[in-house]
Amino acid sequence: MTALVVALLFASAPEPTVSHRRVVASDGASLALYRYLPPGKGEGRSPVLLVGEIGFGRPLFDLHREGLARWLAARGYAVYVAELRGQGKANAGASLRAWIHLDLPAIARVIAAEQSEPIDLVAHGWGGTLALAAAGRELPVRRVVALSTPVEAEVPSALAGAFLAEGGHFSDFAASPGGAWDFELLFAMETKFPPQTLEALRALGTRDLSSGQAAEWLAWMRLGDLPLDDGTTVRSRLLDFDRPTLLFLALGDGFAGPELCAPLRDTSKAAVRLRTFSRFETGDDFSHVSLLLGAKAPSRVFPELEAFLRGEGKTP
After folding, report:
1. Per-residue pLDDT tens for 193-240?
2. What domains, with CATH codes, occur in the chain?
């Protein structure tokens, strides 16, 4: 019944105005930024920036006109979906470090020129970890919702290690039934999705990594940290992370397990609220991508996410 009510409310909500613009980083690289503007233009609310997993583009947040981007816009938020180098329509990238030093600052400047309120950040996966490392520095943000964002880095499985060691070719997952199963093991773990969602995400929402990005990502996992160009590291920055945060932990995540993500509460300076899901409570442990595109995400994940952005509930 709850899912039906949510669906009916969403169906009756006015459609946002969706626009796309090219954003140029300081080194000339081309990035993509999608804006979902509600009828009220988001006035009186902080704009929300969505940053997805490495290798995943906008469809992670808006697939076949459904997803978190439109869900938040329907509730009055100005929503921005960034595609950083190596994602979607952005240029290829040799290094993940450019996300922190070049890409996120360029995105932040564009949003600041359009919006007077401070940015709220919704960050997903290992790409979201890079955004958390930039938060409060290159990326000024007020509040953060983190979805399966690792703090501790390790190779999550032999399959994940092989995927990155072989170059991070997401296109291989769509080439055969075996590839489709590997994609599900890494990112979906048999959790519940609407029909054809995973097939569409593989075909439309992912992009092959550059050899440099794949190698750097694997080295980050193997060494436990990622050195940055200013002498800091991702880990050292996360120790200083201090934004109020709601952290969603997906118990069925085969790519960024809860044991890698939960330490943010104890190791950072931030007030962090943890939220986990259990099959005993919801019938679904959730996986890496089902937090955003799963059948239960609009009724279980999105309302808590939005309530936190509004400042409702217990302050972490």
Report:
1. 999 999 999 999 999 999 999 999 999 999 999 999 999 999 999 999
2. 2-309 (3.40.50.1820)
